[in-house]
Design goal:
This protein has about 375 residues and is an alpha/beta fold. It has twelve helices and 15 strands. The longest helix has 16 residues.
């Protein structure tokens, strides 16, 4: 992980990719959001450019929340360090947010604060249309924070399209425009990356990879950031109870829940009767049904399964019947609804077993996508 002189995450390496879409994802606390604030203010001071800040819901960009966004940047003196170069006649500086706008104020002893410039704006995916009447001639980037959600019900439909509408309004014909997407590694199946055609599950932590998507060759650079080396042993004590989600907080690993996993001999000794394959563009799982009501879920065909007398059936996301062995999860057919009921009963009764926590996470994500 590239570090700045203070030992925190530095964006310098991912900027070298020249990508027009940049995703910085990882552990809590290494300085991902701080780097966006640093870029925002340094670009304003040295280039005169502004930014548009984006969150998912309207409630995420209220005045009370946005007025806190730059607090650490102000209190630690970084805002003053930058802005005193552009406005040397002022002793200190603050940023205030009102009516969708971030404004920079200069302070002199014994005088009222003076508004120096508007440096950016804020909107949400759910209300992006609100900025259509505005003009952004100096804006060179959109910063979308909290791209991933821990509560997956908070995702909106067609998020990439909503983000593109905001980009279209702001960018116009600017050639040096970028979109930054920042998040903790909370969701391996984040919808916006799926809509881009990306599968990030196999990218190692502490790496930068460039992906090409779209017919015109959009470059999307993704950096997975590990925890900061500045985390003290005392700090890490708070996240040392063996919970898999702790590894996201400290190490930047994907956040997944513990699930009930089987041992190899459990599957080997089971009497399997049927297999349902759950298939989507980014997930393929094999659900083996045993004669005693248990369901074993794997991310691959079970070893030796060709020796079993097993009937295979595929269920996909979408709402169409593909062929006589492949059906849509929400097709409404009685036999498919019966399979879904068996899976639900097995889960409720604790008879659902997975080959890994990652497979359990993929199973829940398949259900989320298939039931939309």
């Amino acid at each position: 992980m590239p570090l700045n002189k203070d030992g925190w995450y530095d964006r310098k390496e991912i900027e070298k990719t020249g990508a027009n879409w940049v995703a910085i994802l990882g552990a809590r606390g290494p300085g991902k959001s701080w780097q966006m604030k640093d870029k925002w203010i340094s670009d304003f001071v040295y280039k005169g450019t502004t930014k548009v800040f984006v969150r998912r819901q309207k409630g995420d960009v209220t005045s009370s929340k946005m007025n806190q966004y730059f607090n650490d940047f102000v209190t630690k003196g970084n805002l003053r360090t930058y802005c005193s170069k552009k406005y040397p006649d002022y002793d200190d500086f603050t940023i205030e947010f009102k009516t969708m706008t971030f404004s920079l104020f200069g302070h002199r002893e014994g005088e009222k604060p003076i508004k120096l410039a508007d440096i950016g704006w804020a909107t949400s995916l759910s209300t992006g249309r609100d900025i259509k009447s505005l003009s952004f001639p100096t804006t060179d980037a959109v910063i979308f924070e909290e791209v991933m959600e821990e509560d997956k019900s908070k995702y909106l439909d067609n998020e990439l399209s909503k983000l593109q509408q905001i980009v279209s309004t702001v960018r116009r014909n600017r050639s040096d425009f970028k979109v930054y997407m920042i998040a903790n590694t909370l969701d391996r199946e984040c919808p916006i990356f799926h809509e881009m055609g990306l599968d990030l599950k196999k990218q190692p932590i502490n790496t930068i990879q460039s992906y090409t998507a779209g017919s015109r060759g959009n470059t999307i650079a993704v950096e997975l950031v590990e925890g900061s080396p500045n985390n003290s042993e005392e700090t890490e004590k708070f996240f040392d109870f063996g919970n898999v989600r702790e590894r996201m907080i400290v190490k930047g690993e994907w956040a997944i829940d513990e699930c009930q996993c089987f041992k190899d001999e459990d599957l080997y000794n089971a009497s399997l009767r049927d297999c349902v394959i759950l298939d989507s563009p980014y997930i393929r799982l094999y659900c083996y049904f045993s004669t005693d009501g248990k369901v074993f879920v794997l991310d691959r065909r079970a070893p030796g399964s060709t020796d079993y007398d097993v009937t295979y059936l595929t269920l996909t996301t979408g709402n169409t019947v593909v062929n006589r062995n492949t059906f849509a999860w929400i097709s409404g057919l009685k036999q498919i609804d019966a399979i879904k009921k068996v899976l639900l009963i097995a889960e409720l009764n604790g008879f659902m077993y997975f080959d890994s926590n990652e497979t359990g996470d993929s199973y829940q994500n398949f259900l989320r996508m298939a039931n939309k």
